[in-house]
Amino acid sequence: MSNARDVTAETFDTEVLQSSKPVVVDFWADWCRPCLAFAPILDQLASDHSDKINLVKVDTEAEPQLAAKYGIMALPTLKVFVNGEVVNSLSGLRSKAALETELAGILS
């Protein structure tokens, strides 16, 4: 079972921008093989750090306006939000260890 919630343009403000915890937003599409390979890595990261972060997913095919608003040019792309602001952006498939290193500031 996924630890990520799907968000839409209607729920993005509440789920991401108003969250009291940092939020990792996974911009993905079901035709994107690297996105599908990345999903279990992100789920494990979210599970391991559920006390520190929330993980949500935005299907860029269903929510093109969100992808455009946040300048998504490649998939998968992660945007990290803290207090409603983007503090980090990562594109491409990564290992769990690499993600933990890149997100160390919000995971510690």
Automatic annotation (TrEMBL):
Which residues carry out catalysis?
A: 32, 35
Record-annotated Thioredoxin domain positions: 1-108
Q: Can the keyword Electron transport be found in this entry's annotation?
A: yes
Residues of the site described as Deprotonates C-terminal active site Cys: 26
The residues annotated as site (Contributes to redox potential value) are 33-34
Q: Which UniProt keywords apply?
A: Disulfide bond, Electron transport, Redox-active center, Transport
PROSITE patterns per UniProt: THIOREDOXIN_2
Q: Which InterPro entries match?
A: Thioredoxin, Thioredoxin-like_sf, Thioredoxin_domain
Which positions form S-S bridges? 32-35
**GO CC terms on record?**
cytosol
Pfam families for the chain: Thioredoxin (PF00085)
Q: Does the keyword Disulfide bond apply?
A: yes
One MF annotation (Gene Ontology) recorded for this entry: protein-disulfide reductase activity
Name the PANTHER family for this protein: GEO12009P1 (PTHR45663), THIOREDOXIN 2 (PTHR45663:SF40)
Q: What family is reported? A: Belongs to the thioredoxin family.
This chain belongs to which protein, by name? Thioredoxin
Give the species this sequence originates from.
Answer: Candidatus Lumbricidiphila eiseniae
